[in-house]
Write a structure and sequence with these properties.
Number of helices: 11
Distance between the termini: 35 Å
Strand content: under 5%
Number of strands: 0
Structural class: mainly alpha
Low-confidence stretches: none
Oligomer: single chain
Helix content: 40-55%
Largest sheet: none
Shape: elongated
Length: 205
């Protein structure tokens, strides 16, 4: 059975084929039916192809393999496999606390090209740096990491709500006055510059 991507390719080929026919035999468009077909081939179908392609690529950009396909993100991808539960991304990824195939998007949704307008701009800047310029040596999130990314999953969870430390500072966590990843809390994140020297978890080993 043909999937959405396959259907999109069929539509693209059909569009190119029809446009080619009209260029070779413009007389086909003389009648009312030909004009309607020409409109479909030169306006409606291209619009559908562009919209479908955009949607398909937006879906693909949520995938973990897409995020770590950039050279600058390679060590961030490796950090998901660090064999140390103190590494927050590794602990979430390896235990499927986030979908493994969308791990980056699950924790960074507000900072990708799917976030608010300013965050979409930041995402496009990173794409530009990957292909045109040079990525920064240390990749940072403008404005810092927002606790909302943690709380949207952990808020209401028994293990989180009943933790005495969390209870004592719940208001400051929810208002983002104190970061979940601040020093002394969950402060071992990707540490991308160090992962090459660490032991890695091998799935199935």
């Amino acid at each position: 059975m043909i999937g959405p991507t396959g259907l999109l390719y069929v539509l693209i080929v059909l569009t190119i084929g029809l446009v080619g026919v009209f260029f070779v035999r413009p007389s086909v468009t003389a009648g009312a039916g030909g004009k309607i077909l020409a409109f479909m081939a030169m306006c409606a179908l291209p619009a559908v192809c562009v919209g479908g392609g955009f949607f398909s690529q937006m879906q693909r950009s949520e995938e973990t393999k897409f995020c770590i396909s950039c050279h600058a993100m390679e060590n961030y991808g490796k950090s998901l496999y660090v064999d140390d539960p103190s590494y927050i991304p590794a602990k979430h990824f390896q235990n499927h606390r986030v979908p493994a195939d969308m791990a980056c998007y699950a924790c960074h949704a507000d900072y990708t090209i799917y976030g608010p307008l300013k965050d979409k701009y930041q995402g496009l800047k990173r794409v530009y740096m990957q292909y045109i310029s040079k990525p920064p040596e240390h990749i940072t999130i403008p404005g810092g990491y927002n606790n909302h990314q943690c709380l949207r999953c952990h808020s209401g969870a028994r293990g989180f709500e009943e933790n005495a430390i969390h209870q004592s500072m719940m208001d400051t966590l929810k208002s983002n006055q104190v970061s979940c990843i601040s020093s002394g809390c969950h402060d071992t994140i990707h540490n991308a510059s160090e992962v090459s020297h660490l032991k890695m978890w091998r799935p199935g080993s």
